[in-house]
Amino acid sequence: MSTRITGPIRRLKEDILENTIFTLQDFMTCTKGLTYIIMGGILVFMPLFWKFLTDREDD
Amino acid sequence: MAISRRKFLGSLGAAIGATTSGVLTKAYGAANKEFKGYPGSSGVLHDITLCIGCRKCEQACNKVNDLPQPEKPFDDLTVLQQKRRTQADEYTVVNQFGPQGSVFVKKQCNHCLEPACASACFVKAFKKTPAGPVVYDADLCVGCRYCMVACSFEVPAYEYDKVLTPRVTKCTMCAPRLAEGKLPGCVEACPREALIFGERDMLLKIAKSRIQKHPDHYVDHVYGEHEMGGTSWLYLSGQPFESIGMREDLGTASAPELTSGALSTVPIIVGLWPVLLTGVYAISKRKDKIAKEEQDQALHTASVQATEEMNQKIEALREKMVKEKTAAINFEVKKALEEAAKEKEAEKQIEIHEEKDSTSTGELEDSQENGKQEE
Amino acid sequence: MDSDNRIPENKKLTTFNVVTGIILAGGVVLTILRFTMGLGTVTNLDNNNPWGIWIGFDLLCGVALAAGGYVTSATCYIFGLKRFHSAVRPAILTAFLGYALVVLALHYDVGRPWRLPYPVFYSPGTSSLLYEVGLCVFLYLTVLFIEYSPAAMEWLGFKKLRNVVVKLTLLLTIFGVVLSTLHQSSLGALFLIVPSKLHPLWYSSYLPVYFFISSMFAGMSMVIFEGSLAHRHLKDKMDETHLRENTGVVLGFGKAASFIMMGYVGIKIIGLSIDNNWHYLTTGWGLWYLLELIGFVLFPGILYAVGSREKNLTLIRVASLWTVLGIVLNRLNISVVAFNWHLPSAQRYCPSFMEIATSVFIVTLGIVIYRFIATRMPILHEHPDYRAH
Ligand code: SF4
Ligand code: SF4
Fold this sequence. Notes:
The complex is a heterotrimer of chains A (59), B (375) and C (389).
Chain A: H1 7-19, H2 24-54
Chain B: H1 2-20, E1 42-47, H2 56-64, E2 93-97, E3 103-107, H3 116-120, E4 126-128, E5 134-136, H4 146-150, E6 157-158, E7 168-169, H5 175-179, H6 185-189, E8 195-199, H7 200-213, E9 233-236, H8 255-338, H9 343-374
Parallel strand pairs in B: 1-9
Antiparallel strand pairs in B: 1-8, 2-3, 4-5, 6-7
Chain C: H1 15-37, H2 39-42, H3 53-65, H4 68-78, H5 85-109, H6 118-121, H7 129-156, H8 159-167, H9 169-189, H10 207-233, H11 240-274, H12 284-309, H13 313-337, H14 353-376
Helix pairs in contact in C: 1-14, 3-5, 3-13, 3-14, 4-5, 4-9, 4-10, 5-7, 5-14, 7-8, 7-9, 9-10, 10-11, 10-13, 11-12, 11-13, 12-13
């Protein structure tokens, strides 16, 4: 199956292959990667926000 | 009847499970998305009815992958009598089945559309390529062997004997040869066209038309069309697949589908646990504070009460004293009036009574001090 | 409870020292063998059975039994049950050592241990549950180290730094609980990918929940069990507060463990019902499953209940050991016994002598280090300079 497509069509094909997610596996890897970063952000933000929230309380 | 009922209950159970455990099992990140795999990717169709067990494919595989020579040469067909699986230096094996030993099945990596090995690998050493092959990168591999645990087809093998550079090994579908425009080694070597290479969609059509043309010859099932989410290798058989060593109970859910529920529970825990736990902490702290305040309050009222009681007692005592005093004085006055006649004796008596007064005031002061100490 | 069999500090050639000495020496030999001859020589692992007891026992049981750290610190600092305070330090120390040894054991098990940082720092395979486990274990080990560090700093006399770290207690505790929830459950979720290999009685989409819930009573039981060991052998290191609070800790955790275990039995039955697995119960596998569930969860759960009703500390301690064994049984069932149940017995895995010896070596190493630290640093007693109350 090595039909050689050349020129702009080939470039278009490569473009689609590169920028589309075709498997659930790739999708999970991608979205989970981003989600892990968000998780890190949440873990840093929440304590700081709690601090801001309770700053003025006298114990 | 029993079986279908059991099956029904099973699926009912699954449905209940899905709704009750909500977040836990079914809320996978890709619930509303469907992935069809790479368009135009290739695969191989293995028509088991055509295979004669000549081991030419094994030989070719050994050659193109530069694997070590086996103990017994490839034209020795007695090895077929033993059930074999893929090994670190055997990427493909042919096994013999059937009553007369007349059915031969080739086994190698099925190059899943949604590979379990890739889903399981924690360093992305496995990858499904757009062309079809699932390839492995030994430069990333840590050697945890979770990919081997995960593969339902029991394909990947490990170089347990290497000390410093053990690799996971499996069929590559000759990805390097495909890139050069060549056929996979085994397909090229097969003398009976039991293996044909092509676009997976095409192969599927060929397989189905063969079943349609020869319904007596084939089992009405293309193995690999849906197994574990579908595989790039497809199989046609004249015997039930279960009887020729190919499991039919694997189901159609792909590996990423099986794990996506658990994977998407993780971020929810990270999102909610800190809120929940801080809340519990705040509540328990608040309770402590209230308890402490109440305690203080109770202590305070108790001490106030104590002082009041003490004051009352003192007051009563004082009143009593005063009464006694007045009574005494009155009494004295009376006596003085009555016995004014006896002047000398009366003077002595008054002196004695004054001494008594001063001692009782002393007692009063003592009891006041005791009260303070109790506070 | 008397201190007769306590090991005197000055006598070097005690049975304890001789036995541990032999085991540690053997461990060194095994280590050399493992890293010069490869996995194939030392283990019975093969292509069908890529995970043996180094994963099933060292990783799965190690992590579950080290759960005492998060359970105890959460009880004390988040739920505000201050009477558990004296139990926190020993529990954190055990957890820290437990996780450190789990990571050590992984170095033996994986093919190229020097690449263990790869998943976190070089090529994260985020679709894998093992990635999740790896990341959390790495982070939690760090958290545990920081949580443990005040004890070391009090010993070394780093006052200022110690006070800074102590201020972080609540934050670290919350992180600890979050990370523990994640990786305890993800260890169970590792097996979600193989419905085809794990026996249906053990395979369930609830596996992550089962692992998380059972880690709670595993941790509590370890705290009780380890407390009774420490009581026998390290009593002279304990202060008034510790001795006074100990009964309360044992009773409290005994009661909590009992109740959680009943809940666990409940959700296990729900799992059977949801997947309609009743008919497996009459097979041999079913009997084995019932032995695990009734003999090693329900039974010790009831022991705990009776013990805490009657304030019978001995009974609770027996129950704690029983529960710990039950956890080991459960984890080994999932990773080794009921895994690959479909294969003919000739292709099944049985650990080699050297695998078992290596696991024993690693556990012994843990005990020796615990003893070293607990006899020197303020673990079982408070440092006189830093009294909490
Ligand atoms: S058959 Fe196994 S090794 Fe091959 S791609 Fe599928 S999961 Fe991976
Ligand atoms: S053994 Fe290698 S390829 Fe397999 S899952 Fe582990 S790191 Fe990935």
